[in-house]
Amino acid sequence: MAYSDYGAFVYKNGERRRDKEDVALFKSDEETFGESSENIPSGARIWVFLTKHGGGLPWTDCIHHGIMGDGDIRVMCHKTGFPRIYERIGEDINDIDYHPMPDNFDAPEGSPIYYEYKGYKFIFKVGEPNIAEMIEPDGTYWRCEYGYLYGAGFEGNEDA
What we know:
Strand content: 35-45%
Order of helices and strands: EEEHHEEEEEEEE
Distance between the termini: 24 Å
Structural class: mainly beta
Largest sheet: 6 strands, antiparallel
Number of strands: 11
Strand order of the largest sheet: 2-1-11-10-9-8
């Protein structure tokens, strides 16, 4: 993963969630990095992760640029790719299900794509930066902005 040139900013109800930037899909920041995770700059997280865990882990345990959600349904935002929706279906970290988008989700760059699943609403927009939004059934609003030379590790772009 190229953490020197890709990144994300993640927000929950308008508040930045640095603990959802450069983290594993279903592991908490503390589970991944330990109790002092707030002192680890986002750009250094990949090195801390590799030093602590080494290679050979399931991809769900690997670091991704932006993760939206705290519950069983989460959205993974990575590099410049299309966001992916996952659901935890068991207790084990690998008991997850990927929810592919319908085949008719072709949209011109910059056009929003709307999707609903189990009461969650998703809006995805591919461009620079890429933007993913998730509204949980209780109204909790998540937003992830991510892409090349953007996001965590590129703090100068935060207000772009």
